[in-house]
Amino acid sequence: MTDADRRGAGPPGRELLPVAGARAVRIALGRLLRGRRGVLAVGLGALVASAVAGVLVPPLLGQIVDVVVDRRGADAVTGPVLGLAGAALAQGLLAVVGMAAVARAGEEVLADLREAFVARALGLPLARLERAGAGDLTSRVTADLALVGEAVRQAVPDMARGALVIVLSLGGLAVLDPRFLLAALVAVPVQVLTARWYVRRSSPLYREQREVGGAQQQQLLDTAGGIATVRALDLHDDHTERVRSRAQDVVDLALRVVRLQTGFFGRLNLAEYLGVAAVLAAGFALVGADAATVGGHTPTAAQAQQLALARLVLADPAVAVLDEATAEAGSAGARVLEAAADRALRGRTALVVAHRLTQAAAADAIAVLDAGVLVEHGTHEELLAADGRYAELWAAARLDR
Amino acid sequence: MLGLDFLVLSFSYRWGARRAWLADVRADQRLRLLVAGQLLDPRGGAEAGRLPGELATVAVADAKRVGVVNFAVPLGLAALAAMVVAAVALLRTSVPLGLLILLGTPPLLLVVHFLGVPLQRRSGPEQERAARASGVAADLVDGVRVLKGLGVVPAAVARYRRASRDALGATLGATRVQAGYQGAVLAANGLFLALVALVGGRLAADGRISVGGLVAAVGLAQFLVTPLQMLGWVNARVAQARASAARIAALLATGPAIGDGDPGTPPVPARPGLAVHDLHHGTLRGIDLDVAAGETVGVVAADPADAAALVACVAREVDPDRGTVTVEGQPLAAHPPRVARTAVVVAAHGSALFSGTLRANVAAAARNGSVVPAMAAAQADQVPEVLPGGVDTVLTEQGRSLSGGQRQRVALARALAADAPVLVLHDPTTAIDAVTEVRIAEGLAAVRAGRTTLLLATSPALLGVADRVVLLVDGRVAATGTHAALLDTDAAYRAVVTG
Fold first, then answer.
1. Of the residues A287, B54, B97, B495, which has the maximum number of CB atoms within 10 A of its CB?
2. Is residue B258 part of a domain?
3. Which DSSP string do the residues of A341-379 spell out, in sequence order?
4. Is B488 exposed, middle or buried (0-12, 13-18, 19+ CB in 10 A)?
5. Contact at 8 Å (CB) between B473 and B308?
6. On the CB side of A272, how many CA atoms lie within 13 Å of its CA?
7. CATH label of the domain that carries residue B387
8. Which residue does chain A place closest to B63, by CA atoms?
9. Interacting residues of B3 by C-beta distance below 8 A, sequence separation 6+
10. Quick check: helix, strand or coil at residue B292?
11. CB–CB of B348 and A95 under 8 A?
12. Count of CB contacts below 8 A, A vs B?
């Protein structure tokens, strides 16, 4: 569409060669792909399988975490680790097969296309070519073919890979809990808007950048090629100004590109934040509702608990009940959470439910429940001195560490 | 917390990337202008032994590669900082696990690097063949008229098909290697992660590190790959930039071809005489020439190298090995180069035209008055008649959109329009037919009547309008006389001029 605009605005008196519409391109593409569908299907299948193997990695890591949390012993780690190694090998092997097949199909299509193009171009009636001007055909055979090649080699595989990872990751989230999927999708509108914002601005800008860069190169060639003439006719000032102004054009455009790109990534950061924050919030809500296991999402749970503590501070209640606010975070994470909880609860009346005794020890008074019955009540020191259930738990916890 | 983190990330990235990028682009531009300034030095010298394409490459590609250092080094520092933070976090979690990851990641990247070596070996020939195929295509399309005229379109298509299949073969080989490489990288990364998970998992299961520590370690192991790769990238950019910087430095270090002259030298009068005394340069072995004010003298060189050497000396392209060129008794070398070249304008054979309109090209060196008489005298007034935009037609680089004969007439018109005190013309009509040449000779005589003109040529039509002609043989003056007299009496002269 943009190419058609550019070609439409040709020099006066010129009748540029036509530009194919979307339908014609689709038909031509179908013709080029004919006979290669098998290779393509194998390649795409292998790439999907490779991506699936890649998506298996986080749940396997989650299993290791579950092994540790459930205290199943060091040897129980071996199974998931072997799974990880298998996933790595499968991912690599399948990727080799898939990429080779897809690249093969792409390169062959590209070769067919350029050969058909040159044959067709050379077969056009001379009068038609004269009307279009020499530059039209030359720019198509060089710049446009190179662009198509770039798309086949880079853009299409990158996009396909990206789409695969997105679909599989969303699928993975959905398998954990459909509500995770919904939360992750929070980022999508921002991403879509960002992409539209970027594409609308970037393609004319990049085209301009290519033109300005080309003009600069041509000017330097022009000046360098005629440098003896520049000297002989004393054209230094003219040519210095020409080079300077071309270079300035390049700098001006680079500044616009920088602004566009940093703006683009800044907006993506926002989308990423929204997505991560939404998944964390959902994770916390689900963990609270006992709907999701923490396995595989431990760091997010720790962070979600921090978010929850922050929410508590913002809500500023007089009385707070914390249910296992530092659980499952591991000792390092728990210390951070304990400190956070401590600060969040300062000046409030709080009932803290905890099985991590370090947290209990910090409380003003401790109530020990066993099988639904209150068995002990007192301060940490009192309960230790009583040498009852609490003291037993405390000793066990110390040994465990 | 998370929101703040993202806010800091986003703003730091935006601000840092913009700064670094600006520094990159500005350094790039500064270097480019430095190179262009050296190239455009009136004393010359920068282009010695370098093709125009090479000069443009130094000014564009090399300057860009050096500029990128300004972008790459901050990224490298950021990567280093990220690595230090990650390393501290890892070692605080667990010393053995941290050491495994910190010491294991560089060898992993080395393995990845060596896996990539065959790829680099392959990519050279692949790009070459692809470039050749695209060159053949552009060549054929450019010459479509000739191909059709010769009726060889099928042969041309077959030739392109061979080049294209050749390129395809090379590309397929390279893509296989590329696929193997990427797959190997994926597998290597995954296996390393499994190893980290194994060691970390066992440590966690034994209670030596917490679950949080395990997850953080696994995450950091994956995170570390990015800054390490970044450092590799920065390293490669810096190495590349060093080579480019060396090329730029070599160009900037090229000494000027001629001296500065003395700005205090008295100015050249409007109608000076030109003299050459005992000039030795190249093939010249001591020539003496005297062109009186207002005179037109022809020089016929039996060896074109003699003419070229004389033009180089008179144009102040070089300082002669021995002897002097004087204008009104004052050595040309005493004047600053730009002053010398305004006094003595040399239109060398094959003078370049530049992109811009036809009118702007002719007027480029015009000091005063209209360009119309000069256009008429050079028969260049016929050129715009066949162009779509007349005198306002924009010429492409080096005036390549014109034919050789058109270019020569436009260049001659430009030299005449300069209205120089001394004009030196070197073979100005070699691409022009004899009838037009005669008209040009008449026009030249009319425009330069009473002006000092040195005419280096072998064309009888041009030499016929010279007051005197000097014959150079073996780097020395062999004969002097009018064109008609020499034609009658000097066999060597006759052989050069009519041969």
1. B97
2. no
3. HHHHHTTSEEEEE-S-HHHHHTSSSEEEEETTEEEEEE-
4. exposed
5. no
6. 12
7. 3.40.50.300
8. A247
9. A273, A277
10. coil
11. no
12. 344
Closest Cα in chain A, distance from residue B393 (Å): 12
Residues of B in Cβ contact (< 8 Å) with A105: none
Minimal C-alpha gap between B481 and chain A (Å): 29
Give the integer Cα–Cα distance in Å for B381 and B106.
Answer: 71
Look up residue B116 and give its two tokens: 């990539």
Please tell me whether residue A124 adopts helix, strand or coil conformation.
coil
Partner-chain residue, chosen from B9, B56, B215, that has the shortest CB–CB distance to A65: B215
In tens digits, what is the pLDDT along chain B, a chain of 499 residues?
A: 777 887 887 788 888 888 888 899 999 999 999 999 999 999 988 887 777 778 888 888 889 889 999 999 998 899 889 888 888 888 888 888 888 888 888 888 788 778 777 766 776 677 677 777 777 877 787 777 778 877 788 988 998 899 889 888 888 888 888 888 888 888 888 898 899 889 988 988 888 888 888 888 888 887 877 887 788 788 878 888 888 899 899 999 988 999 999 999 898 898 899 999 999 999 999 999 999 999 999 999 998 899 999 999 999 999 999 999 999 999 999 999 999 999 999 999 888 999 889 999 999 988 777 889 999 999 999 889 888 888 998 887 778 778 888 999 999 999 999 999 999 999 998 888 778 889 999 999 999 999 999 999 988 999 999 999 999 999 999 999 999 999 999 999 998 887 6
Inter-chain touch A332–B397, beta carbons under 8 Å: no
CA distance A324 to A301: 12
Output the CA angle A86-A89-A91, nearest 5 degrees.
Answer: 105
Are the Cβ atoms of B3 and A76 closer than 8 angstroms?
no
Clarify whether residues B224 and B278 are in a common domain: no
Domain total of chain B: 2
Q: Residue B220 is part of which domain span?
A: 2-253
In this complex, do B355 and A141 lie within 8 Å of one another by their Cβ atoms?
no
Token output for B214: 């395990």
Q: Do A122 and B141 touch (CB under 8 A)?
A: yes
Query: Is the domain of B458 the same as that of B393?
Result: yes
**CATH 3.40.640.10: does it fit domain A288-400?**
no
User: Residue B355 carries which side chain, given as an amino acid letter?
Assistant: S
Distance in Å, alpha carbon of A375 to nearest chain B alpha carbon: 29
In Å, how far is A234's CA from the nearest CA of chain B? 6
8 Å CB contact between B349 and B415 = no
Where a domain ends, among B253, B287, B312? B253
Kindly state the tokens that stand for A307. Answer: 């978010």
Q: Do A77 and B201 touch (CB under 8 A)?
A: yes
What residues of B are in contact with residue A306 (Cβ under 8 Å)? 1
The SS3 of residue B291 is: strand
A154 touches chain B (CB under 8 A): no
* Whether A277 contacts chain B with CB within 8 A: yes
Is the CB of B197 less than 8 angstroms away from the CB of A141? no
Mutate to test the interface with B, among A36, A84, A120 (most CBs of B within 10 A): A84
CB–CB contact B191 A85 (8 Å): yes
- Looking at B253, B286, B321, the residue that finishes a domain is B253
Residue of A nearest to B344 (CA): A232
- Among candidates B14, B26, B142 on the partner chain, residue whose Cβ is nearest the Cβ of A262: B14
- Location of structure tokens 């690599």: A92
Nearest to B341 among A69, A108, A232 (CB): A232
Same-domain status, B64 and B194: yes
